[in-house]
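Handout for the seminar on molecular recognition.
Each group receives one record of this type.
Step one: identify the two inputs.
Step two: read the structure output and locate the region that could contact zinc ion.
Step three: write two sentences on what you found, then compare them with the reference statements printed after the record.
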Amino acid sequence: MIEKTRELLAGIARDLLARGLTDGTSGNISILDKPSQLVAVTPSGLPYLDMTADQITVLDLAGKVVWGKCPPTSEYLMHLGALKSREDITAVIHTHSRFAIAMASVHLALPSITVDMAAYCGKEAPVIPYQTPGTENLASHVADYVQQGFRAMLLANHGTLFVAPEADLLIDGAEALELAAMAYIRGSVLGKPQPIREEEVNKLLDLVYGQKRAV
Ligand SMILES: [Zn+2]
């Protein structure tokens, strides 16, 4: 069932570890297969180092497991909330990456202060107020922010979320967010990090998403 999507997802999961965006098994990924309306998600508690397509779980949009031996990530509700909240979003990544989680721990929104962040994430990564992980509450807050047009978000005291129209953008987006968080924290030692002007952010967004971007 949706084998190509599961293979793609397993590859991204391996990359997540290789690119230093997760330690161990934290963080998770989902991809919506548009034709079947089924969602491939990372399994709960399995290491990403040599993840294979057979370990990926497939859910319907109501959250029922329709394929796979492994239970889905405990954060699947948040993924479904994001995927269902906007037509153009088909892929979601959640990380506990180190610098972004530091910003999330002090509830500090991250403005776009690097060109990579602007191109992938838009003008800001807001902080979503703390909600218990794995709950409907967190899912509905996430859905709300995605609906408002945010691509990148910090989950208070928890981690990050990045949503995209294509799965190929997930790792680059998560990495751009992490790098900007690092630049913000380290740059603050030297001075005040300077956000990129909004019209410039829009030009950079077009480089990644093209003229057709919805927001
Ligand atoms: Zn988490």
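Reference statements: The chain is about 40% helix and 20% strand. The radius of gyration is 16 Å.
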